[in-house]
Structures are given as structure tokens and as C-alpha cells.
Amino acid sequence: MPAEVWPQPVLDLLAAGDDRPVFEEGDRIVTTAQLYRMVRRITAGLRAAGAGPGVGVALRLGVTAEAFATIIAAFAVGARVSGIRPDLSPAHRAWQLGGTTLLVDDARAAELARTPDDGRPLIAAGRPDDVARIIWTSGSTGSPKGCAQTYAAMSAAWAPYPDRWPPAVADLATRLQRYLVFGSLSSQVMLEYGILTLAAGGTLVAARPAGFPGMIARHRATASVITVGKLNQLVRDQRTDPADLSSLRALLVSGSPLPPGRLAEALDVLGPVVFHGYGQTETGMITMVTPAEMLASPAALASVGRPPPVTTLSIRDADGRPASEGELFVRTPAQSAAYWNDPVETAEVFVDGWVRTRDLARLDGDGYLHLLGRIRDVVIVQANLVYAGPIERILAADPTVAEAYVVGRPDDVTGEAVHAYVVPAAGCVPDAGRLRAVVAEALGEASVPQSIQPIERVPVAPSGKPDKRALAYMTIR
């Protein structure tokens, strides 16, 4: 098996281990050498349980050294690895566990970690064309889908290879001395940046308990991942009751893009620590922009960054022809190959080696990507498609509005009607009539919200993203 098959670079890094701390849980410090021995024991346990190439292994794990070691071991034996969230409905759990041979939770991981080392060579056993992992989408645009990523694709990823790091990632890597991990290490983002942390010589620090800003101050963390909603809350908290965040050097914003005004405010309040990125479960990271870029250029601040050289972008019109603005198609080295057991959606999204993002976008003259809305985030008014994204940006640009969200509701006259929810800026009372006039002038009457309702904060889904479904069912006052 070639040395470069995933997760061989991680195994090699750990095998060369010493007493460097790589995982911290409260008073417990796990060194590189200790973690390597743990991976060896868990690998032996998984082999004994029948795990190997092509075998489905589902992981329902939290944040422990054993959980991290189990994930690496499951890949080392060449299994088809799938992370399972604990809050799934019975139907979704049954669907995601279909074809699974072995389910490993935290208790089983601790048990596997006590398996005697079988003395066998620890060499990545994955077959390049086999599915290495199934990453489940958040379901923000429908039912969760399983993104199937092969061992060949995972082997092409940049995280464990410093010589492959794009410039923005190389900048981020210098700030990962103490990277906070929380939720589940099976998470795509948590694992990817956890591997980056190890390759950069840093330590993964388990947040006990999780929650901003306390966990940053408590653990003297230098870096973490944060959703847009939590970042907005952190900025508000730091204005009114600031915590000691002097150790913080990087916050990687995950989930959905931030309006330029909110990004500028975050940089002003938190300092040059915010990294704004864009990616999808199907593709991994597509673009990233650093704090220095955003502080130096208004165009960068209004974007989601530039793609690395290995990533190719194509913007196309409704007929599939190249366009200055239109739907974004992407190619990344580590992209998924298909949706698990879903040939219809696979044919719709994975097209001739490209991934349809179903996001509207444009590239500016400096190569920065600007998101303009989501293809399917639409309201059908009088049989015409009205995109929510442009309306949200117009509303959020108003000085009395901090955040804006647009949904569609059934309407007896127009089929569907546009409704907006706005989080007021501090000390402001948005004028709904004036805002509707602003939208009409910028986008036309069809885009004018039938109602504009102030809310204290947007509801969020388990993924941490704004829950537009919940908004759509809120009572209009």
C-alpha cells in the first residue's frame, strides 16, 4: 500500500512521536507517543471485531483522546467510516446506520483502547477507490445526504501536509498552538482542523464545558471554530461584558457567510483573529480570507476569500455557459464522489467531475469570490423566482439592521410571498416601511417583503446554522 494513502501521514507523524503534548483533557495530557500507542491498540481491537476494507463502521463519539484515536484507527484499517450525531430521529438514525457492521460509541472506544497491541505493522489499509467516509450534510436545504469521499480523495487533502497548505491555511496554522475541540471529533470541520493542528505542532484541547467566551479564557485557547450566530453573540457579549480573550489568535467562521459590516465589527471588537471561509460538505474548503486581507481591502472584506491553486471554480448561467455571475461549480482535490445510496441527487450535483454548489456567485478582478445567494433559497412569487440572498443583503446593509433573514410562505394571491425577519442593530428600531421601499428601489416590487418582523435573535438548527424552517413557522405579528 502506498505510504501516502490516508491516514498514513497521521500515522507517520504519531509514530515519530515524543513527549510533545497533542491532546489535553483537563488535567490529563496525552503525548504524541501515548496517542500512537492508543491508535495501535484500538486498531488491533477493530481488526479483531471484523473491521477492515469496505466494512462500515459508525462512530458516535464525543471529544476525548480515545475518540480521536478511534477515528484514526477506523481509517487505518480501511473501513467505511461514518459519524453519527446523537440527536437524530429514529428514521434518520436507521437510514444512516444502514449497512453498518460496527457501531462504536465512547464506551466502546474506551474498551477498544484497552485491547492488547497485536504487534502487526500499522500501515494504512484503505483501497483508493473505496469509500473512506460518509459525511452527512446538515439538512439545511432538505433531508441530510451522505457525501461519500474515497480514500483517494482523502489522500489528496492538504491538512496533514505542510507543503500543500494554501497561503491562508499556512497563516491559520501558525495560530493553532491550542486548538479548542468540542461537540464531536467526527465532525468534518473539527477533524480537518484537528489534523492541521497536529501537523502544525499544536495541541488539541477538549473544551470542558463548551461555550463561548468562557472556554477560550478558561483553556487559554489560541484557536477555535465558531458559527456565524455564535460569533455575533460573542461580539455583543464582548461589547457589554468583555471576557479575557488575550490568548485568542484565530476564530474560523463556519456555516454561512457573514455580511461585511458584521465581519468588520468582529475584527474591530475581537482583533485580527477572524478567518472567513467558504466550503461545502461535498467539497471541503473552497475559499478562505485572512484577517490581514480583510483589514487591508474592502473587496476582500465583502468576499469569502480566494481559492487555493489546486481548486478550480466555474461560474455558469442557467444554460451552463460561462458567466460573470451565476451558479458556482467547483473542483477540489478531496471532494466527495457521490451521495451515498442516492443516484438521483448524485446525478444532479456531481456533474462531469464538477460539484454543483447551487450557490450564486461572482469573482472580482482580484480573484475574490462573492456569494450572491443560493439557487434553491427562493420564493416563487407569481410564478417568478425571487432569491432570498439579495433581499437579505439589502436589509442587512441598513444601519438599523444587524442581521436579516428571508423566507417564503404560501399566499392565496401570489402563490408564495416574501417575509423577512430582522435582528435590530443595538439601540435601533428598524422602520419596516422604509426598508420595504429600499428593497423595492434596489430589486423591484416582486422582491419586497410582505412583512418585516423584528426578532431578538434567529433560531438555529443543530448544525449551528440559521434555521429558516423555524422562521417560516413563526407567527407574524
Automatic annotation (TrEMBL):
Gene3D superfamilies: 3.30.300.30, N-terminal domain of ligase-like (3.40.50.12780)
Domain of life: Bacteria
Keyword Transferase: no
Domain AMP-dependent synthetase/ligase: from-to ranges: 19-97, 120-340
SUPFAM superfamilies for this protein: Acetyl-CoA synthetase-like
GO MF annotation list: acid-thiol ligase activity
UniProt entry keywords in alphabetical sequence: Ligase
Residues annotated as signal peptide: none
Pfam families (alphabetical): AMP-binding (PF00501), AMP-binding_C (PF13193)
Residues covered by the AMP-binding enzyme C-terminal domain: 391-465
This protein's name: Acyl-CoA synthetase (AMP-forming)/AMP-acid ligase II
Source organism: Micromonospora tulbaghiae
